[in-house]
Amino acid sequence: MRxxxxxxxxxxLVALPLVGCKKPAGDPRGRPVVLALSSDPDHLNExxxxxxxxxxxxxxxxLHLMEEQPDYAAGPPVFKPQLAxxxxxxADSLQITFHLRDDIYWSDGAKTxxxxxxxxxxxxxxxxVGWSGSDTKRFITAVVPVDSFTVRYSYSRAYPYQLxxxxxxxxxxxxxWSKVPRDAWSADxxxxxxxxxxxxxxxxxxxxxxxIILTRNERAPADLQPAIGRAxxxxxxxxxxxxxxxxxxxxxxxxxxxxxxxxTLKADDKLTxxxxxxxGTESIAWNNESPIFRDVRVRQAMALAIDRQQLIxxxxxxxxxxxxxxxxxxxxxxxxxxxxxxxxxxxxxxxQLLDQAGWRQxxxxxxxxxxxxxxxxxxTTSSTSTDRIQATEMMQQMLRxxxxxxxxxxxxxxxxxxxxxxxxxxxxxxxxxxxTQPTLAPAFSAANIGAQNYSRYRGTDVARLDSLAASERNLxxxxxxxxxxxxxxxxxxxxxxxxxxxxxxxYNHELQNVQMNSLSFCWxxxxxxxxx
Length: 532
Known about the structure:
Layout: H1 6-15, E1 33-37, H2 52-61, E2 66-68, E3 79-81, E4 84-89, E5 95-100, H3 114-124, E6 140-147, E7 150-155, H4 162-167, H5 174-177, H6 190-193, E8 201-207, E9 211-216, E10 230-235, H7 239-248, E11 253-254, H8 262-266, E12 271-277, E13 280-286, H9 296-304, H10 308-315, E14 320-322, H11 337-342, H12 347-356, E15 360-362, E16 365-370, E17 373-374, E18 376-382, H13 386-400, E19 405-411, H14 413-422, E20 427-433, H15 441-444, H16 462-470, H17 475-492, E21 495-508, E22 511-512, E23 529-530
Parallel strand pairs: 1-10, 18-19, 18-20
Antiparallel strand pairs: 2-3, 4-5, 5-7, 6-7, 8-9, 9-10, 11-21, 12-21, 13-20, 13-21, 14-21, 15-16, 16-17, 22-23
């Protein structure tokens, strides 16, 4: 992946004129806002690429039915109108009828309609497309246009997350994608070259590996028009480079500031630094199909050798909390008692488990062996994450104490994704971004092996139990069901949950109306503005 030198990128940005639109309040100088991304999207279609950096771009240029609000700690989040102006439930709550705005146009001039919504739902559940989030549609039995701007969702049951399940997945331009066979969507390059958008921005240019330039979507109605007319997402895989460009002013917003640099950045009066619990966990995905980790006793032994607090103190400079379960702190299905119960180091018990699994040490200690083969494996992680690399190196030493050789293997993010999907790895240190709807099926259901089930786990009947818990309308009864499922999964240790980091972001102090949260570091980008 080749990056333009910073000076050349800056020169390119200056040379790009604003296109035919009036400068609004908040953008008095026509000044673009520049945001750093750690990786480039694969596609500009959420159903083909649902990585976080991709969503950060796509959600600025395409609309959901509604806008999800970051208020999910006590129960399902609130939704505000976006493409849908209003919605009504049937008396039995088994149908929701969405009334769409009639003033939302695609960037090629076509109107966004109920037929686009129905088409997008059909694509979301089509195995030929293979969207990893298709499980969110499991209780939706039909999506039918009533007329051009009314669409009705029917459900097999009433449950707390009906709105969220309808909302998951962007609305696509049916007049484009209906002409492409769905099993050929991933090979389509025409849309990426000229994406058809209906959000506050549209894509003006995508120079792969370098930057994505968004410009004001002139067809968007007044209430969706962005205050800043141009946003540039610059692809900067290296964390040190991202930080240096934030300090120099070449970049205006950065997600994931290195923790060791926080004190220095807070002292810089040109920057604003914000922090909040990241809605996800850092974890080790053990490949449950590998010869070493198909034995649950080996996975359990590895977990008992890892000191989470040491990782937090060293790799995160204390900016984190231990994680032992799939659900993160901040959602109503989180149980703090699990931390006290499972956050422990016991190398003696770890050794016993490995002995039982046939991995034995010689009289001099050292590396364990089974059937003449050493207990050694690669511990793969992203080369763009300095704290993950440091944590991986620390765990190498921790696991050595129980006779295991874990060799750190930093790789490019795209390579890591390919390894996780194909199963070409033994163990991987990864960040799991949790949904704001409590669900465990995407990451642990056997049906999602090759998608989000990175550990290739085939145990506990996750899909059925998750479905039962999710369909419980009484949250007081749903919570114990989710806790029970978490305990079942943890007993099998398909993954070892390490910690939940605090997310520290930085942005130019001249920006105002900035809301960064666990949904996105540019959640309300269309409302950002420059001070006068």
